[in-house]
Amino acid sequence: MRHAGLKYAAALSAIFATTAQAQDSNQELAKKLANPIASMISVPFQFNYDRGYGPNDGNKSTLNIQPVIPFSLNADWNIISRTIVPVTSQNDIAGPSGSQFGLGDTLQSFFFSPAKPTESGIIWGVGPAFLIPTATDDLLGGEKWGIGPTVVVLKQEGEWTYGALANHIWSFAGSDERNDISSTFLQPFLSYTTKDAWTFTLNTESTYDWEADEWSVPINFNISKLFTIDKQPISFGAGLRYWAAAPDNGPEGLGFRMTLTFLFPQ
Q1: How far apart are CA 207 and CA 186, in angstroms?
Q2: Which keywords fit this entry according to its UniProt record (predicted)?
Q3: Which of 80, 206, 227, 265 might form a disulfide with 37, Cβ 3.0–4.6 angstroms?
Q4: Alpha carbon distances (Å) from 219 to 206, 216, 241
Q5: What is the pLDDT of residues 76-93, one digit of tens each?
């Protein structure tokens, strides 16, 4: 009986150890996901719903497909590819403008980033960003090609991740009938990841349109959980966004966000 008891205790210990290791692994993956330039392939699907556009209280639903793919240049440097492809359904966003559905313009960014953080723990990346006019409808994009710099700086300490991502896009080609683009994007972010892989994130995704002299400032709060299904790490999250500032034609009030991310650790 004593030997049976010892075997049972050993089995329980192994189960608890495996569970603890899985939690540690999920927490580390969740922390990597909080890093925009982590050396890990991920494919986020981000759904946003916003309302209050124009005099007809128009609404917009956007699914952003955002694959992140790292490439190793050598032992010291990586290139991180970040792509944002929006699929949008909208209604009366410019007065009685009807409904549109299709692709929006694609934003493609490349970050040159050191393979390891600095001695003080800073993680950073810098590179070019490209705006590609892939919109399938006039009201879904700007019909302009754009280019500019992008940069991200962050630090991870314990359960905390904090930093900022920014870019600026100037248009250089495209339809002469459409307005030129000169737009600055600022995304400071703060997140806390628990040992059981819950992540609480607060950020803004502010845009300043230098041509129109207008700010768009949504403040986002999101809660996500990373879990594993048949060895596939997946993160699911949901949250609210509040429009602290927006152009005269909207959006306004509260919006909604959901995220589903597939992770492919190397």
Answers
A1: 6
A2: Signal
A3: 80
A4: 8, 10, 5
A5: 999 999 999 999 999 998
Other C-beta atoms lying within 10 Å of the C-beta of residue 108: 14
Condensed to tens digits (0 to 9), the pLDDT of residues 143-155 reads 999 999 999 999 9
pLDDT tens by residue, 228-257: 998 899 999 999 999 999 998 889 899 999
| Helix, coil or strand: residue 7 | helix
How far is 157 from 160, CA to CA, in rounded Å?
5
**Res. 94 pLDDT band, cuts 50 70 90:** confident
Q: Based on the structure, what is the number of domains in the chain? A: 1
Q: Which two tokens stand for residue 9?
A: 């205790």
From the list 151, 218, 222, the residue with the least C-alpha distance to 191 is 222
pTM for the full predicted model: 0.88
Q: What is the mean pLDDT of the chain?
A: 90
Dist CA 216 CA 48 (whole Å):
15
Backbone angles phi and psi of 20, in degrees to 5: -65, -40
Please spell the DSSP secondary structure of 52-105, one letter per residue. EETTTTEEEEEEEE--EEEEE-SSSEEEEEEEEEEEEEEESBTBS--EEEEE--
**Burial grade of 13 (CB within 10 A; 0-12, 13-18, 19 or more):** exposed
Query: What letter represents residue 137's amino acid?
Result: D
Phi/psi for 257 (5° steps) reads: -135, 140
Backbone angles phi, psi at 32, to 5 degrees: -65, -40
